[in-house]
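Quick one, T. Sequence first:
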Amino acid sequence: MKSFSLGASKAPVKFRMPTEENLVPIRLDIEVDGQRYKDAFTWNPDDPDSEVVSFSKRTVKDLKLPPTFMTHIAQSIQTQLAEFRSFEGQEMHIKEKIVPIKIDLRVNNTVVRDQFLWDISNFESDPEEFARTLCKDLNIGDPEVGPAIAVAIREQLYEIAAQSISSVREARLGKKGRRGAETVTNSKAGNSALDLVKYFGSKGSVIRKRKEWYLYEPIVDILSNEEVGALDAREELNAR
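Structure tokens:
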């Protein structure tokens, strides 16, 4: 796995994804007239808004969706980008924090479950490369799984980064208690994770505790078509 130089900074930095590329995770789940479209991908927030419209048109054309989907897709993407951009310019107070990342997803017939620790202070980390390496190591052949894992990682990192701003706001308002993803710092678990530098080097972003490998070993299941059909039916029922 590629190593990345540590981008930790104890001084406040302007809001952005704590990764090498400032890509926003976008998730769509749109239903119109009984037809449903679901997708997840990343988006460059610096792209012009016209790209959103072009993407929506191409998606509707390629997937042969009803024309009404175009507006819904564009609006959903623009809403999520607007939320991301609302944080821009504000300070993130991220120090050297190790945060738990959990993967539990199904893509087509493949189910992947995993858990590891991520150095959120490393602004040179690459979720996409990590996902590609993980899929290669686990012999996952479906090309859609890697991007889905990367999006899941980015969603969790985005939530933590956004909540770092919310926490600062709450502190300034004198509120007690902070909402946010659990961070592992200065705890027994956190110290153990940091000690593992001797195993993985000082430039890595992903850490697995050697003594807990048997607990957090990645799990990959390949479902039958019948099992996939049953899960899809259950999800549709829950959605309704």
